[in-house]
Amino acid sequence: MHKTLEESNALITEIRGIVRDEMQSNTKVILCPPYISLASANRLLEGTNIELGAQNCHQDEQGAFTGEISAAMVKSTGASHVIIGHSERRQYFGDTNEITALKTKNAIRLGLKVIFCVGETLAQREDKSYFRVVESQLSEGLFALDRKEFSQIVVAYEPVWAIGTGLTASPEQAQEMHAYIRKVIGMHFTEEIAQNTSILYGGSVKADNAMTLFGQADIDGGLIGGASLKARDFVDIVKAVR
């Protein structure tokens, strides 16, 4: 919940310019501004390789849910992606594994790709239940999908204890969980599907730690929070993806 419409347009315009001038790689860049900025962001990104996503959507297609946004509404703005199951949605707004499963199924049915977030709290990290927690989030949130539907999923691992706290999982901790996520996906679907699934890391990623994190074998990119509010910082992180 950052940036007015005017501020968001200015940030997106700045990011667009830096990406155009400096990005030589094929790294996929997806911007996920607040709902009020989606339609204008789509116009600003027209003709670029930068894609657009929303930060959330409701699990029903329409109805008497004042203040909510449906996947169809998100799609109508020109967005191609939606984030589902972000830790803040789980923590503050009651998004359970069951709800994230419904949201995901509906979003995919309506033609959106889903960035599906999983991750453990500090208490779960300390009591050693973090593998079980993340496996439950994956299995209850995603594994009712068929293989074609799952091909529309990007998984994002975000250790809740490292979001906005200045703490960051060590590269070894992040890699351990990413490898585990890939293993769980492979066990449910196939090894080929697991290897073809992009798994992002989110949790206080900054320009000075991005290259080390993204250098790990199973970390395919980042879900960037606070550092995305400054165009220079964000693009420097994107350029660290290899």
Q: Calculate the mean pLDDT score and round it.
A: 96
Structural class: alpha/beta
* Unreliably modeled segments: none
- β-strand number: 7
Q: By CATH's scheme, which homologous superfamily applies?
A: Aldolase class I
Tell me the CATH topology.
TIM Barrel
Radius of gyration: 17 Å
Strand line-up in the sheet with most strands: 1-2-3-4-5-6-7
Descriptive account of the structure:
The chain is α/β, with parallel strands linked by helices and 242 residues long. It has one domain (53-228): TIM Barrel. Helices cover 47% and strands 11% of the residues. It is built from 12 helices and 7 strands. It has helices spanning 5-22, 38-44, 71-76, 87-93, 97-109, 122-126, 130-142, 147-150, 171-188, 191-196, 207-214, 231-239, and strands spanning 30-31, 51-54, 81-84, 113-118, 153-157, 199-201, 221-222. It has a 7-stranded parallel sheet with strand order 1-2-3-4-5-6-7. Strand 6, helix 11 (207-214) and strand 7 form a beta-alpha-beta unit. Helix 5 packs parallel to helix 7 (130-142), helix 7 (130-142) packs across helix 9 (171-188) and helix 11 packs parallel to helix 12. The radius of gyration is 17 Å and the shape is globular. The two termini are 29 Å apart. 41% of the residues are buried.
